[in-house]
Design a protein that fits this description.
The chain has about 140 residues and is of the alpha+beta class. It contains 6 helices and 5 strands; from the N terminus they run H-E-E-E-E-E-H-H-H-H-H. Helix content is about 40%, strand content about 15%. The protein is globular and about 45 Å long.
Length: about 140
């Protein structure tokens, strides 16, 4: 496997940590450019249990599936990711590389500040601290506590 597609264990660990905090079906809503990106932990009945699925957040079968990250941290891009326009492909890769590099807290905060909603629960960020941090207090504790 290409070395660039390995080492995504921090993403898998983050999703496991969110699940262990009491969120049975963890989802993280982000974006690359103007394209939505949802990270969702696959359940035990899934074809790939424990993997992190990367989609555009749409409902099956209309959702665009960009790939998955295995529990071991390997990224398996799907055809939808490979056929993105070059600029979008670069933006997706930059986002995933930042998550891989341990910058999840900064990525979550940027998303929250840009859209005014928590990237985990989707609620509007209303108090000053949440707006400044870009994530709600409960979700922040679940992800980074």
């Amino acid at each position: 496997m290409n070395a660039q597609l390995q080492g995504f264990q921090p993403v898998a660990s983050l999703m496991d940590r969110i699940k262990a905090s009491g969120n049975d079906h963890p989802r993280v809503r982000l974006s690359f450019g103007d394209t939505p990106l949802v990270l969702a932990l696959s359940g035990h009945k899934s074809r790939f249990p424990g993997a992190v699925a990367l989609t555009d957040g749409g409902r099956y079968p209309a959702a665009r599936f960009f790939g998955r990250i295995t529990p071991q941290g390997d990224f398996h891009p799907a055809p939808a990711a490979k056929t993105l326009p070059q600029e979008q492909k670069r933006a997706l890769w930059q986002l995933l590389s930042r998550l891989k590099g341990g910058e999840a807290e900064a990525v979550f905060a940027e998303h929250g500040k840009r859209f005014g909603v928590c990237c985990m629960c989707g609620r509007e960020l209303s108090n000053a601290e949440s707006v400044e941090l870009g994530i709600g207090p409960i979700c922040r504790e679940r992800a980074f506590g």
